[in-house]
Write a structure and sequence with these properties.
This protein is α+β, with helices and mostly antiparallel strands. It contains 3 helices and 4 strands; from the N terminus they run αβαββαβ.
């Protein structure tokens, strides 16, 4: 009986340490590039402000806007570093917040392309 209790304790101890070591692994990061086209009137000052607002969104590592005033069309290039999603509760880059931000500058978002780097 003592042997089975000792064996049970050792197995329990092994799985406890194994579970703790698994939970402390660093989250794998995924790099993505988002490309969003838009149209509307965008002055150089507003362009700078929009770029800064986009760069402040969670997981954004860089944001750049290209804009042609003669056609009133532009492109937003965003690079993110996001944790790999392991469950539905995990957060990622918020595309809804990006779209709302573009709308808040009186611009019309058009097409979105996402590429994993």
């Amino acid at each position: 009986m003592k042997i089975s209790k000792l064996f049970f304790f050792q197995v329990l101890l092994f799985f406890s340490f194994h579970a703790i070591s698994q939970s402390k692994l660093p989250a794998k990061e995924i790099k993505k590039q988002y490309h969003y086209t838009f149209n509307g009137d965008l002055s150089p000052q507003v362009k700078q402000s929009l770029e800064e607002n986009i760069a402040s969104l969670k997981f954004v590592s860089s944001a750049k806007i290209k804009y042609k005033s003669e056609s009133q069309k532009g492109e937003v290039f965003i690079q993110t570093t996001e944790p790999e999603a392991t469950s539905e509760e995990d957060t990622s880059f918020d595309l809804i917040a990006l779209k709302k931000l573009i709308h808040s500058f009186n611009l019309t978002p058009l097409e979105l392309n996402v590429t994993q780097l």
